[in-house]
Write a structure and sequence with these properties.
Number of strands of chain A: 4
Largest sheet of chain A: 2 strands, antiparallel
Strand content of chain A: under 5%
Strand order of the largest sheet of chain A: 1-2
Number of strands of chain B: 0
Structural class of chain A: mainly alpha
Largest interface: A-B, 96 and 80 residues
Order of helices and strands of chain B: HHHHHHHHHHHHH
Shape of chain B: globular
CATH superfamily of chain A: Ribonucleotide Reductase, subunit A
Distance between the termini of chain A: 83 Å
CATH topology of chain A: Ribonucleotide Reductase, subunit A
Number of helices of chain B: 13
CATH architecture of chain B: Orthogonal Bundle
Structural class of chain B: mainly alpha
Oligomer: heterodimer
Largest sheet of chain B: none
Chain lengths: ~500, ~325
C-alpha cells in the first residue's frame, strides 16, 4: 500500500488555515464584523500565499534562541559599563528619540496586528498577522530592556510612556499610529505592514540601528541584529498583503492607491525626525539623510513601484516633492528643535566646524545657501550670551502635527501654508500632501489632539512653559536645553576625566 | 576563599523608569517583567475615534462592564515577558519533540485497537478546532482588552492555543501516516457530529461576545477549564489502549492548562475582588459559561464514554469548585 504523504506546504496548511471553519451558529459577518466596510473585495481568501511557513514550535525555538543570546549581551553590556564606551554622550539623544517616539509605536503595532490577526477573515492572513503582533511586542519589550541601562545614567528616558501621550513632538508618531489603529484592518495592513514595514523600514529602523553600530552602542545594535530576521518576515508579509489585495479584485486598486499615497506622505513626514537624527544627532555619522533617501526610496522604492506597476499601482503621489524635500527636511527640523530646546526632552547643539563642513559636502545644493548662515548666526548669538529661544508656541499642521516650518516646493525661503474649511472651521496644513489627507477624511482628522491647541485650551497643566513641562514630567533644566551644560555632559566628562587620569 | 574580579563601579543616577518607581513606591531596582509591562499601553489624549467602533477609543476601559481602578492590578504570577515566555515554551516543546520521537519510533499509535483509533478520531482530533477558537478569542482579548498586564499574556496565550492546535494536528498526522486524511475527517466531525455541536455552538457564540472580560471568563473557565479539562483528564478512559501514548503526546497541553490557570485564575480573582459589582458580574458570567461548557462536554462524555455524562459533570464540578475559591458566587 502506498500512502501519499503531505508536502511541506500542505502540511503547513493543515497546521493553520485547515484549523478554520465557516461558522454556522453565528453568521460569519458577525464573527468578522470589521472586514467589509472599507470596500476591499476578496473573492478567494485561499489564494493567500503564506509568506513564511512557521509553526509555533519552530517559532518558540528560534525566538528563544535569539532571546538567550540578546539578553546575554545586555547583561554583559551592563556589567561592563558599556555606556562609557559610546562615541559621545550626544549620541544618547538619538536613543531618547527612539525610546520616546518609536518604541511605543512598536507596541501600537503589536496591538494593531492582534486586531488584524483576529478580524481578517482569511485564516492564513490571521496567523501571519498574529506572529507579527507577538514580534512587535518583543521589539517593544527588548527595546525597553536595552535602553533601561542608559536610563540609569542619562536623563530624558525615564518617563517615556507618560511623555508619549503628552509631549508636543511625540504626537507626531502617536497620531500616525492612532491613525492606522483607528482605520479598518485592511488599511492598517497597508499602512503599517506595507508602507511602514516594507517601503520605509530601511529609512526608519535601519538608520537607528546603524547609528548605534557606528556610535559604539553595542546593546542597541545587538537588539537590531536580533530583530533583523523578524523584520524580514514583516517585510515579506507587507509585500504579500499589497499583492494579494491587488490580485483579488480590480476595484481594490483605487482604494489601495489612495492608502499608498496617504501612508507614503504620512511616513515621509514622520521620517523627518529620523532625517534630523541622522544628520545632526549622531556624533559618528552613517550617511546623510539625502543619501539614505536616494538609496532606499528613489532607487529601491522606484524599482518596487516598477514591479507593482503590473497591478496598475503608481508611485505615491508627491513622491517627487518628498525627494526634493530630502535636501531640506533634516535642517528645517533641527532648526525647530533648536529653537524649542526648552520644551524638548533631549538636548540640542549647533554643529561644530567639522560637522558644518560635512553638511556642506553632503548637501551641496542647499546647505551653504540656506542653512549654514543661520547656524553660524545662532552660534554667534550663543557666544554673545544671546542664545536664541522661540518663546511663541508654533502653529501645528492639522495632519502630521509638525510645527509649520516647512517651505514651499521650489522656494526654500517661503514657509508653506495650506488650509481647508470644514464645518465652519479652518484647518491648517504644512503641505499639499497633508491637506489632501485631511480633505479625504475631514471627519477623522478634525478630531486630532493638537498639542498647542490643547495648551491654549488649558488642558496641559497650566498657562506657562514650566507648568506644561511639569505636566509632561519633563525635568526642567535637566532633560531639556543644550547639551553643553547638561547633566549628561557632566557625567560623560567625569567618566572620561577618570579614564584619562588612569591612563596617566 | 572566593574568586573576586574587580570591576569599575559607577553609581547609577536612578534605578528604574519614573512610572515604574511610582508603582514600586520609590526608585528601587525593578524586574524585567515590570519594566516590560507596567504602564506600557497608552492611556490618554488619543487622536481619532476608530472608524469601525466610534463609540470607543481604541484603548477604552468601557469595552467591558467590569470596572478596575487600575488595570495593572491583575499581574501575571509567571512574570512573563517575551523572552521568558518563549524560553519557557521552547523548553516545554523539547519534551514534545522527545515524546513524538518516542511514540513514532516505537510505532505506539500503529499498534492500537480499532476502538481506540475511532475514539481518537472522534474525541481527540476535533479539539484542534476548539484550540483554534481559543486562539481567536485570546487574540481578541489582546486587541480589545485594557492594559498590557492582561493583553501581553493574552497574545502569548493565543500563540499557545495555535501551538496546541498544531500538536493535536500532529497526532492526527501520526495516526494517518502523514496523509492529512484524519484531519479532514476531524473537521467533518467537528462540523457535523451531533456530539460536538454544543461545543461548536459555544465557541462560535464566544466569537461574537463583545465584552472582552466576559470573553476572558468564557475562554478560561468555560473552554480551558471545563472542556479542555474534560478532554485531557476526564476523557482518558475513552482512549483505551492508546491512553499511554496519548498522555505522552498531550503532556504539553496538560502542563499548559495548569500553568495558564495560574495566570488566568489570578486575573479573575483580582478583578472579582475589586468590587461587589465586579464579583456579581463575573459570577454570572462564570455560571453561564461553566454551565454551557459542562452541558457541551456532556454530549461528548456520553458519546465517548457512554457514562451518562458523569465525566463531564466531574470536569464541570471541579471548575465550579475552583470558581468558588476565586471568590465567585457560583
Amino acid at each position: 500500500m502506498s500512502v501519499k504523504k503531505l508536502g511541506l506546504r500542505q502540511r503547513y496548511e493543515h497546521m493553520t488555515r485547515g484549523l478554520d471553519w465557516e461558522t454556522s451558529y453565528q453568521p460569519m459577518d458577525k464573527v468578522f464584523p470589521y472586514d467589509q466596510f472599507e470596500g476591499i473585495k476578496i473573492k478567494d481568501w485561499s489564494a493567500w500565499e503564506d509568506p513564511f511557513r512557521l509553526t509555533m514550535d519552530s517559532y518558540w525555538k528560534f525566538q528563544a534562541e535569539k532571546e538567550r543570546k540578546l539578553y546575554a549581551v545586555l547583561d554583559s553590556f551592563a556589567q561592563n559599563n558599556g555606556q562609557t564606551n559610546i562615541s559621545d554622550a550626544r549620541y544618547i539623544n538619538a536613543v531618547k528619540l527612539f525610546l520616546t517616539g518609536i518604541s511605543p509605536e512598536e507596541y501600537q503595532a503589536h496591538r494593531g496586528f492582534a486586531f488584524a490577526g483576529r478580524h481578517l477573515r482569511g485564516a492564513g492572513t490571521r496567523v501571519a498577522a498574529q506572529m507579527q503582533s507577538i514580534d512587535e511586542l518583543r521589539h517593544l519589550q527588548t527595546q525597553v530592556h536595552t535602553i533601561s541601562h542608559y536610563n540609569k545614567f542619562f536623563d530624558g528616558l525615564g518617563e517615556f510612556p507618560h511623555m508619549h501621550d503628552r509631549v508636543w513632538y511625540l504626537s507626531v508618531p502617536k497620531s500616525f499610529f492612532d491613525d492606522a489603529r483607528s482605520a479598518g484592518p485592511f488599511e492598517f495592513m497597508i499602512a503599517i505592514g506595507f508602507a511602514f514595514e516594507y517601503l520605509l523600514t530601511n529609512l526608519l529602523f535601519v538608520p537607528f540601528m546603524s547609528g548605534a553600530a557606528y556610535n559604539g552602542d553595542m546593546s542597541t545594535v545587538t537588539f537590531g541584529f536580533s530583530a533583523q530576521s523578524d523584520e524580514s518576515r514583516h517585510m515579506t508579509l507587507g509585500i504579500e498583503v499589497i499583492k494579494f489585495l491587488l490580485e483579488q479584485h480590480p476595484d481594490n486598486l483605487p482604494i489601495v492607491q489612495k492608502w499608498v499615497d496617504k501612508w507614503f506622505w504620512r511616513g515621509h513626514r514622520l521620517l523627518g525626525l529620523v532625517a534630523m537624527m541622522m544628520d545632526y544627532m549622531l556624533p559618528k555619522k552613517v550617511m546623510s539623510w539625502k543619501e539614505a533617501w536616494d538609496i532606499y526610496f528613489v532607487e529601491a522604492g522606484g524599482s518596487l513601484f516598477q514591479d507593482l506597476g503590473r497591478y496598475g499601482l503608481k508611485m505615491p503621489k508627491y513622491a517627487d516633492i518628498a525627494t526634493e524635500e530630502a535636501e531640506h527636511i533634516s535642517h528645517q527640523n533641527w532648526a525647530v528643535f533648536y529653537q524649542y530646546t526648552h520644551a524638548a526632552a533631549f538636548h540640542t547643539w549647533m554643529p561644530d566646524a567639522e560637522h558644518l563642513d560635512w553638511l556642506s559636502a553632503k548637501y551641496p545644493n542647499t546647505f551653504d545657501k540656506y542653512y549654514r548662515p543661520r547656524w553660524e548666526m545662532w552660534a554667534k548669538m550663543e557666544k554673545e550670551g544671546k542664545r536664541f529661544y522661540n518663546g511663541a508656541l508654533p502653529q501645528l499642521c492639522q495632519c502630521c502635527q509638525i510645527p509649520m516650518a516647512y517651505t514651499e516646493p521650489g522656494d526654500p525661503t517661503t514657509i508653506c501654508f495650506r488650509s481647508s474649511k470644514y464645518k465652519d472651521d479652518t484647518y491648517h496644513f504644512c503641505s499639499d500632501g497633508c491637506k489632501d489627507i485631511f480633505d479625504a477624511e475631514p471627519e477623522k482628522f478634525s478630531q486630532a489632539w493638537l498639542p498647542v491647541h490643547q495648551i491654549f485650551q488649558g488642558n496641559c497643566g497650566g498657562p506657562t512653559v514650566p507648568d506644561v513641562l511639569n505636566w509632561y514630567h519633563l525635568n526642567n533644566g535637566v532633560d531639556n536645553m543644550d547639551y553643553v551644560g547638561s547633566p549628561d555632559e557632566k557625567i560623560w566628562n567625569e567618566w572620561h576625566a577618570e579614564n584619562t587620569r588612569k591612563a596617566v | 576563599m572566593t574568586v573576586q574580579i574587580k570591576t569599575v563601579d559607577i553609581t547609577p543616577k536612578r534605578n528604574t523608569f519614573g512610572h515604574i518607581a511610582r508603582r514600586l513606591g520609590g526608585d528601587k531596582p525593578a524586574s524585567r517583567y515590570q519594566e516590560a509591562t507596567l504602564d506600557i499601553q497608552a492611556t490618554a489624549n488619543f487622536h481619532y475615534k476608530p472608524l469601525w467602533e466610534p463609540q470607543f477609543w481604541v484603548y477604552d476601559t468601557r469595552k467591558t462592564a467590569v470596572v478596575m481602578e487600575d488595570w495593572y492590578k491583575p499581574l501575571d504570577p509567571r512574570q512573563y515577558y517575551y523572552a521568558t515566555y518563549n524560553i519557557a515554551r521552547a523548553n516545554m516543546n523539547q519534551a514534545v519533540e522527545r515524546n513524538f520521537t518516542f511514540v513514532e519510533e516505537r510505532g505506539l499509535l500503529n499498534k492500537i485497537s480499532e476502538t481506540a483509533r475511532a475514539a481518537l478520531a472522534r474525541g481527540l482530533l476535533p479539539l484542534r478546532h476548539l484550540h483554534w477558537g481559543g486562539n481567536m478569542n485570546m487574540a481578541e482579548i489582546c486587541q480589545r482588552g485594557y492594559g498590557t498586564a492582561i493583553t501581553a499574556p493574552a497574545i502569548f496565550s493565543a500563540g499557545d492555543q495555535l501551538g496546541m492546535a498544531q500538536i493535536i494536528s500532529r497526532i492526527g498526522l501520526v495516526l494517518d501516516q502523514q496523509t492529512g486524511d484524519s484531519l479532514d475527517a476531524a473537521k467533518q466531525t467537528w462540523l457535523t457530529d451531533p456530539a460536538w455541536q454544543e461545543t461548536r455552538k459555544l465557541i462560535e457564540d464566544s466569537f461574537v461576545e463583545r465584552d472582552w472580560f466576559q470573553l476572558f471568563v468564557a475562554q478560561t473557565l468555560g473552554v480551558n477549564g471545563v472542556l479542555l479539562g474534560f478532554a485531557y483528564q476526564n476523557a482518558e478512559p475513552a482512549w483505551v489502549d492508546a491512553a499511554l501514548p496519548v498522555a505522552l503526546l498531550t503532556e504539553f497541553l496538560c502542563d499548559w492548562r495548569a500553568e495558564e490557570a495560574r495566570w488566568s485564575d489570578h486575573v479573575i480573582k483580582t478583578v472579582a475582588a475589586e468590587s461587589e459589582a465586579n464579583k456579581t458580574l463575573i459570577s454570572q458570567w462564570a455560571n453561564l459559561w461553566i454551565g454551557r461548557a459542562t452541558a457541551a462536554a456532556k454530549s461528548l462524555s456520553i458519546a465517548l464514554l457512554n457514562d451518562n455524562g458523569a465525566a463531564a459533570e466531574a470536569a464541570g464540578a471541579a471548575v465550579l469548585k475552583k470558581a468558588t475559591s476565586l471568590g465567585l458566587a457560583v
